[in-house]
Design goal:
The chain is mainly α and 77 residues long. 62% of the residues lie in helices and 0% in strands. Helix 1 runs antiparallel to helix 2.
């Protein structure tokens, strides 16, 4: 944990907001990492590994073709 969020989330937040700042060249992008960090902090209060669990879920259980019909995923066979 780093400053209340997982280290992976902290690094991804830093990379994404740095790239957004470089692309937009706008000083209004400077407070964005703090807002995103606050969102991650409040998400990590209840479950500290929420983002790691979400990444694992998304990577091991991709969307299937009939997801809109059934509203759920299944493991690829």
């Amino acid at each position: 944990m780093f400053a209340g969020v997982t280290f992976n989330y902290f690094v991804i937040n830093g990379m994404v907001t740095t790239i957004a700042f470089i692309i937009t060249k706008n000083l209004w992008m400077l407070p964005v990492p703090f807002v995103v960090h606050a969102i991650g902090y409040f998400a990590c209060l209840r479950e500290p590994r929420i983002f790691d669990l979400w990444i694992t879920k998304v990577s091991t259980c991709p969307r299937v073709r009939n997801w809109k019909r059934w509203g759920c995923n299944s493991y690829a066979a």
